[in-house]
From TrEMBL:
The keyword Thylakoid does not apply. Keywords: Heme, Iron, Metal-binding, Monooxygenase, Oxidoreductase. Belongs to the cytochrome P450 family. It comes from the Bacteria. Its cofactor is heme. The keyword Metal-binding applies. This is Pentalenolactone synthase. It holds the Pfam family p450. Coiled coil: none annotated.
Length: 391
């Protein structure tokens, strides 16, 4: 039985083995990086269907005996109560929907643009590590404003967020999760006395209706604080790398900013770097037939969305980076009932960044060869350790 991760020879390429399995064995049993058996699903059509299939979930009736996908404390194994998972998932989406509504996101867009301009104004000299100078601070600033978290505290929770992504040190990641939840918990009494227009205050207002404890609020807000910036950091880094690796498309954005929404969708489709996990973990809640394969109840299933996003059955010339590609039904944000609640926020940040960067820095380019860039392949969010650029 093959074991994840599959090797890839380039930071922007899909491991060839995914494509081979897509063609001949789109549902196949593999060993995870943790050494347990799981079913890997690689085709776009099947991954799409399974994202919305209630017969799969993140919980397990016997979590201590469940297969582990990795050593991650967030995505390595089952989470949640098996009997109440689906009810709590629906409740959480109803609770968060107003916070990430189209209205609130559109009101936030001008502020995101201001933050982008501020970071570009702050660039000094003719070179920088783009990761530290831009890709990290922008999503941190945005999520702080949305949640109502003091930006001056960002060095602490940024460190916890990075530690929380670890695939190699579960103790470090577990401590980071406790620290992050504890940090948000101590903000709650202050906000209860002075309710504002932010997500944490929204959760406080909903306490009675949803029966939320302060700990429930702290856990929910802490995960939003983590997920609301860490994944966008990766997409800003890899998105810029894609554009700088295709300078003709970078210059096309400068010449025609109306191409930016399509460019962002193509970045979202391809902005995955090599990872140990192989995809998103799920567990079969009942015996499940996927194509011609029967998956027994309790077995782990890995939805390889990064492979599905390069399925030639859906995307002509799937490895090509084409900012004019349409349609572009990528699965980066999931699908159906598990579609990412923060998708609109991520799109706004990427659009506001990539409409300004080519205009402000037309000579932007890598300052080291692409093959010298190092992926963060020991984290659940992937991305780059650094992105040295000059202009």
């Amino acid at each position: 039985m093959e074991q994840l991760p599959f090797p890839s020879d380039d930071i922007l390429s899909l491991a060839p083995r995914y494509r081979e399995l897509q063609d001949v064995e789109p549902v196949t049993q593999v060993l995870t990086s943790a050494g347990d058996a799981a079913w890997l699903v690689t085709r776009h059509e099947t991954v799409t269907a399974l994202f919305g299939d209630d017969r799969l979930g993140r919980s397990h009736p016997d979590p201590d005996r469940a297969a582990r996908v990795s050593s991650s404390v967030l995505l390595g194994g089952p989470v949640g109560e098996h009997n109440t998972e689906q009810t709590r998932h629906r409740q959480l989406r109803r609770l968060l929907a107003p916070a990430f509504s189209a209205r609130r996101m559109n009101l936030l867009r001008p502020r995101v643009g201001q933050l982008v301009d501020h970071l570009l104004d702050e660039l000094a000299g003719q070179s920088a590590d783009w990761h530290q100078a831009f890709s990290v601070p922008l999503p941190v600033m945005v999520i702080c404003e949305l949640l109502g978290v003091p930006y001056e505290d960002h060095p602490r929770f940024r460190r916890w967020a990075v530690d929380l992504t670890s695939l190699t040190d579960p103790a470090l990641a577990g401590a980071a999760r406790r620290d992050l939840v504890g940090y948000v918990h101590q903000l709650i009494p202050r906000k209860q006395n002075e309710l504002g227009e932010d997500v944490i205050c929204d959760l406080i207002r909903a306490q009675d209706e949803y029966g939320l404890t302060d700990t429930d609020i702290a856990r929910t807000a802490a995960m939003l604080l983590f997920a609301g910036h860490e994944t966008t950091v990766t997409r800003l880094d890899v998105g810029l790398l894609l554009l700088l690796s295709h300078p003709e498309q970078f210059h096309a954005l400068r010449a025609d900013p109306t191409l930016v929404p399509g460019a962002v969708e193509e970045i979202l489709r391809l902005a995955a770097t090599p990872s140990m996990t192989g995809g998103l973990p799920r567990y079969a809640r009942t015996d499940l037939v996927i194509g011609e394969t029967t998956v027994p109840a309790g077995d782990a299933v890995i939805l390889a969305s990064q492979a599905a996003n390069r399925d030639r059955r859906v995307f002509p010339d799937p490895d090509a980076f084409d900012i004019t590609r349409t349609p572009n039904p990528h699965l980066t944000f999931g699908h159906g009932s598990h579609y990412c609640v923060g998708a609109a926020l991520a799109r706004i940040e990427l659009q506001e960044a990539f409409i300004r960067i080519p205009a402000r820095l037309p000579g932007l380019r890598l300052s080291i060869p692409r093959h010298d860039l190092r992926p963060r392949d020991d984290t659940i969010t992937g991305g780059l350790t650094a992105l040295p650029v000059t202009w």
